[in-house]
Every structure is written in C-alpha cells, then in structure tokens.
Amino acid sequence: MDTPHNQATLAVDSPERMQELGRRLAKRLRPGDLVMLTGELGAGKTTLTRGLGEGLGVRGAVTSPTFVIARVHPSLVGGPALVHVDAYRLGGGLEEMEDLDLDVSLPDSVVVVEWGDGKVEELTDDRLHVLIHRVVGDTADTDDDDRRTVILNGIGARWADEDLRLD
Predict the structure, then answer these.
(1) Long-range contacts of 57-60 (CB under 8 A, 24+ apart)
(2) Which residues pair with residue 36 across a beta bridge?
C-alpha cells in the first residue's frame, strides 16, 4: 500500500454514527475522487457509503451492489454522481475493473469501491483509503458489536492538505 500523505483515526460507536461519518466526509469530496473501502463483511462499508450518498445529495437508495457490481446514483443537487462499486466478486485486478469503465466515470463522479484493494489503485495517484475495523472488547458487552475504528488514509497530492479529522 502507498504511504498515506494524510491520516486520521476516528471512533464510531453505532451504524447511525457510521452513516453520519459518511455525510461529514461527503462535504470533503469532489468530482474525480476515488474512495476505497476496506473492512470485513458487516464492518459498515455500505452504511458509510449510504451516508456519502446522503451528503452528496444523490438519487436512489444506496444499497450494496454485490450482485450488480456497480450502481450509479446521479446527483439531485448539481454535484457529482456517486458511483458505488462492490469489487468483492471480481477476481482480477485493474483489467477486470476496466470493463466497468471507471476511468470514464472518475473525472465527473465520486467513485466508491468496496473490496477494491489490489484492484483500483492504478486508476489514480490520489485516493482516500478508508479502513474499517471492528473494535474487539469484552464479549459480554453487546455494545461492542457496533464499535468501529475508522482510519482515513489520504494518498496523493489531492489529500495532502485535507483535514481528515472531520471536526
């Protein structure tokens, strides 16, 4: 993985807060941004993307595109479209991703790719890599199930001066 130019670590304690994080992060996004989401099944990748969609003001319910691979959500407010990709079922690298024409969509859209590690990095030198980790704690505490540590890694010149703490 490329060395991040900018990094922030955030604590999230519920699905609602993950969605809110997406809404706050959307304010920092602009056309041409590539956001890679990494986390185990159920970590909150789609929930975060739902918040991104709300923050960007796009049309349509943001749901996991696992079986359709990619969904385009046009903007309702004159901003960039959200292209939501689930690369989980794609085995290859960039070659298989090229069939989705993400390089065509990228300049005018915000492209969010779940499970994109090793598959989309070559699309652009600038990207935001979001890692979502479940917090491991006392198994008797059911509140631990919703706690996540979210690491935002800004890679490339685009992210060098961006405040990723999202205060």
Answers:
(1) 58/82
(2) 113, 129
> What are the φ and ψ backbone dihedral angles of 109, each rounded to 5 degrees?
-130, 170
Q: In whole angstroms, what is the distance from residue 23 CA to residue 7 CA?
A: 19
In tens, the pLDDT along 87-128 reads 877 666 555 555 555 656 778 999 999 988 887 888 889 999
How would you classify the pairing of strands 81-86 and 127-134? unpaired
Q: Cα separation of 72 and 105, whole Å?
A: 9
The position carrying tokens 């298989």 is 96
Contact 34, 111 (CB under 8 A): yes
Q: What is the DSSP letter of 88?
A: T
Q: What's the pLDDT at 140?
A: 55
Number of other residues whose CB lies within 10 A of the CB of residue 108: 12
**Beta strands 127-134; 34-38: pairing state:** parallel
Q: Is the pTM of this model over 0.70?
A: yes
Tokens representing 54? 């709300």
Q: Is 149 exposed, middle or buried (0-12, 13-18, 19+ CB in 10 A)?
A: middle
